[in-house]
Amino acid sequence: MRFSYLYKFILLTILFIGCKKNIPETSSLNLISNDNYSTITLYPKDMVFKNGTVDGKGWVITKLYSSGIFLTSPELKNLGTGSAKATVFLKIPDNSTFTDKVATINIYNKNDGSLLTTRVLFKNDFSHNNTYQDFDLFFDVETGASVEFEILWHGTSELSFSHVQIDIYKNKTGMPELVNKSEISDDYANTLAQRAIEGLGFNVASADGPNKNDIVF
After folding, report:
1. Mean pLDDT, range 40-48, rounded to an integer
2. Per-residue pLDDT averaged across 118-124, rounded?
3. Which end of the chain has the smaller Cβ count within 10 Å, N or C?
4. Average of per-residue pLDDT across 70-91
5. For the purposes of burial, counting CB atoms within 10 Å of the CB of 112, is it exposed (0-12), middle (13-18) or buried (19 or more)?
6. Strand partners, 155
7. C-alpha distance from residue 125 to each of 71, 139, 149 (Å)
8. pLDDT above 70: percentage of residues in the chain
9. Which DSSP letter does residue 11 get?
10. How far is CA 153 from the centre of its chain?
11. Region 114-119 average pLDDT
12. Residue 208: which residues within 8 A CB-CB, separation 6 or more?
């Protein structure tokens, strides 16, 4: 009888270890913040994976899986308020069938379920094979928002995830009027203009530098 219980315990231990090997380690998320911006980087160990397996330091999903959710992030709270950019690092083994849809990246405000931004990636968005490339998404973060990052996989290619970096640039008043002719949002264009103006080196206490009466194009 004792042997039977011991055998079952050993078997359950082996099964637990075998199931655990493909689950990333959890860790506390580190939000780095200063006067102008905050940033947080999520690695495979920080994510919630629906399908896939370990790929070196990354995480990979193969064609063995049907289309669906590849991975999601935990809910990201207390990010502050401002214009945000998420930079996602992904790779595929072969981009030869250019028009195949590979993945859809979504970012939500979990408080009300609203979609903050989305981006669809096709094979021709990857300029190199077997090389991690960065893809940017722009969105705005409101006070108290709970942000969730998600990648949907469309089953056309093996896909690997390395990490995602989210930068939140804090909005400032007194900026020049913006004339935005780019393809990015006005909020993020204002953020870039703010960073450029700060880099000019003018004394912020003087009227010598750009101010709210000027125009940024």
Report:
1. 93
2. 96
3. N
4. 92
5. exposed
6. none
7. 20, 20, 20
8. 78
9. H
10. 15
11. 96
12. 202
Q: Give the tokens for residue 57.
A: 């330091």
The answer, yes or no, to whether residue 78 has pLDDT greater than 70, is: yes
pTM of the complete model: 0.70
Both tokens of residue 5?
A: 């219980």
* Contact (CB, 8 A) for 168 and 82: yes
Distances (CA, A) of 211 to 70, 83, 176, 190: 45, 20, 5, 13
Cβ atoms 178, 193 nearer than 8 A: yes
Torsion angle in degrees (nearest 10) through CA of 175, 180, 182, 183: 90
Q: What HEC string does 68-117 produce?
A: EEEEECCCECCCCCEEEEEEEEEECCCCCCCCCEEEEEEEEECCCCEEEE
Vertex 139 angle, CA 134 and 143, to 5°: 130
Polymer length of the chain: 217
1 pLDDT tier (thresholds 50, 70, 90) = very low
C-beta of residue 75 within 8 angstroms of C-beta of residue 148:
yes
Residue 141, SS3 per DSSP: strand
Quote the CA–CA distance of 98 and 139 in Å, as a whole number: 27
pLDDT digits (tens, 9 = 90+) for 11-41: 444 333 333 334 333 334 788 887 677 899 9
Give the 3-state secondary structure of residue 32. strand
- Residue 167 tokens, joined: 């930068």
User: Three-state DSSP class for 186?
Assistant: helix
Runs of H (alpha helix) within the chain = 2-20, 186-199
